[in-house]
Structures are given as C-alpha cells and as structure tokens.
Amino acid sequence: MASITGNGTARRVVVTGAGAICPVGACLDEVWASLVAGRSGIGPITRFDTDGYETRIAGQVDGFDPDAVVGKKEARRTDRYTQLAIVATNEAVRRSGLAITEANAGRVAVLIGSAMGGAETYENGVETLLAKGPRRISPFFMPMMLVNMASGVVAINLGAKANNFAPVSACASSAHAVGEAMRIIQRGEADVAVAGGAEAPITRMSVAGFSAMGALSTRNDDPQGASRPFDAGRDGFVMGEGAATVILEEREHALARGATILAELVGYGATDDANHMVQPAPGGEGAARAMGLALAEAAVAPADLSYINAHGTSTPLNEKFETAAL
Questions:
Q1: Averaged over 72-97, what is the pLDDT?
Q2: Degrees to nearest 5, angle at CA 233 with 230 and 238
Q3: pLDDT by residue (tens digit) across 172-196?
C-alpha cells in the first residue's frame, strides 16, 4: 500500500476495519453494492403516522430486528441508535481481525458521535409521562437517551477501557469522532480506536422540528429524487438513520499483528464559523480553513486530491458556501 507520511511528527494512524448499516444496506458490502448501482434508500416514512406532516419521506433501515442483534432484554434497555452502532461496530471489529483482551483493553478507545442520541427514547418517555405520570418512566430512560450511550455500550460489549466519549456537533459529529480518535492515537493514549457515528432520528418530533426550520425536502411524490445536492432545484435535506464505524490503529501496532491496512489518516482540521446557529459563514471561510489545516498536516497539495466527500445537504445556503469554500 502506498502511504503518505504527512509531517512525520506524530504516530501514524491507519484504518484496519469498517462496518456500516443504513437504508441501502445491512452491512458494508451491501452498502457499497447499492452505491455502485445507484440505488436509493429514500421512501415514505413508516415508523410513525405522517398525516399532517409537510415532509413524509426519509431513509429508514427497514427490516432491522434489534432482538436479533442484542437480545430481547438488552433491546428494551438500548435506544435504536445504540443498536445500530452495535451492528456497525461488530462488523468493523470482525473485518479488522482485532482481538480485545484484558492485556490490551486499556489501549482501545471508543468514540461514537451522534447529533441527537436517543431521540426515540426521549419522545416515548415524554409521552409516557404525560399519559401515565412520572412513576411509569423506565429506570433505563436516562441511560438510553444519552448521546454518549452508544459509545458506552459498544465499549462494554467489547471490553474497551481507554478513552470513551461522544462528540456532539450536528452533522460533523462522526467526522469529529474519527478526527479526535486519530489524535488520541497520535498522542499515545491508545493504540486502537473504534470511531464513527450513529443516528436514529426518524421520530415525530425530529421530523416536525427540522420541517419547521424549512430544512427538509418536501418532494414527497419523488422520494428517490428528493436528495439532490448542488442541484438548482434542491429544496432541503432528507433525514436518514444508520451507523458506520472504523477501526483505527497505530500503524506499527497494525503491522505487528498482521492486519490488512485499508487506508491511512494523514490530516485533520476542525474550525468554527462563529456566524449563526444554522447558517454557514458567507464565502465558506470556516470550511476552507478546516480543509487547509487538514491539507497542511498531511503535506498534500489541493491539486493532488482525487476525491472530495462533500457535505451536500441539498439546502441552498450550505451548498452555495461549500462550493465557495472548495
């Protein structure tokens, strides 16, 4: 594998495993096959009654059976977003060939970001409170809804005992999880990290809230054409659920155990526009600085890039200023 050494001042971080579950696939191979084939996972919302909603479409993980993933008992004690994180992580660990033991557990970190955490648990809890009173709230309500619980439950399942937290930064949550996990390994605080994100926000309040902002597409009659980033006719984003995680390792650690190296992380940048609650700064100045920081750390020139993963929300302002930033 050809590698880029970047500035050479920190421990090198590589990817040795990956896993995913989302509306177009229950595992990484299915997701990739769907992407290559151009299949869409967007369709009518079936998780709740959308009568009266302006937006009635989303990307759902259909056919998902949490009982089969964590067992009936644990399924009652974990939110859907945590269950999705477990699926993605189990696949990532399996693909990496990583074995976590008492001897190395203290060197394995878990960072799984989420914007909304247990949104479904929260909504159901409020409904129970209003209908039946405070004594009927489940004792698992609080841990189920916390945004860091996916990261916590995954760590418990794996026996991972190094750093554990959940970046919460809206659409950037999982990107921050990967970047900060990279930093933890570079600093020598861990040799391995599970990093990624999980989300299960297709609930009545979440869809109503984003719709009230005017952020969601209302192209209900054309669900598969609703998400159209950088298109002149774009009218908002489409909500989706799912999870994806990667296994990051210090390069020498990965080589020593004979792991297959899929990629190397060579640069990371994070900035803040300090501009508005939901709108990016005019001109894309903040995003441009973040990309500049990542490129500088990686010692890579913009002309050397062959692929850019755009935010691509299908909202007018985001893509205007993302284009400007690029």
A1: 96
A2: 70
A3: 999 999 999 999 999 999 999 999 9
φ and ψ of 216, to 5 deg: -95, 145
Tally of helices (H runs) and strands (E runs) in the chain: 11, 8
- What pLDDT sits at residue 9? 56
* Burial (Cβ within 10 Å: 0-12, 13-18, ≥19) of residue 69: middle
CA dist 209 and 281 (Å) reads 23
Torsion angle of C-alpha atoms 183, 6, 288, 286, degrees rounded to 10: 20
Q: Which of 195, 202, 178, 198 is nearest to 243 (CA)?
A: 198
Helical axes 66-75 vs 80-96, angle rounded to 10°: 120
Find, among 317, 322, 316, 236, the residue nearest to 42 by Cα.
236
The reported pLDDT for the residue numbered 274 is: 87
Per the CB < 8 A criterion, the answer to whether 114 and 147 are in contact is yes
CA distance 326 to 314: 16
Kindly report whether the global pTM for this prediction surpasses the value 0.90: yes
Task: Name every residue whose Cβ is closer than 8 Å to that of residue 257 and which is 6 or more positions away in sequence.
Answer: 97, 98
Percentage of the residues of the chain whose pLDDT score is greater than 70: 97
Q: Which of 29, 172, 162, 150 is nearest to 81 (CA)?
A: 150
Strand pairing report for 108-113 and 192-199: parallel
> What is residue 34's three-state secondary structure?
helix
Cα separation, 287 vs 74, whole angstroms: 40
pLDDT digits (tens, 9 = 90+) for 146-160: 999 999 999 999 999
pLDDT tens, residue by residue, 209-243: 999 999 999 999 999 999 999 999 999 999 999 99
For 152, residues 6+ apart whose C-beta sits below 8 A from its C-beta are: 110, 143, 146, 164
> Where does the pLDDT of residue 317 fall: very low under 50, low under 70, confident under 90, or very high at 90 and above?
confident
For tokens 């020593």, the residue is: 256
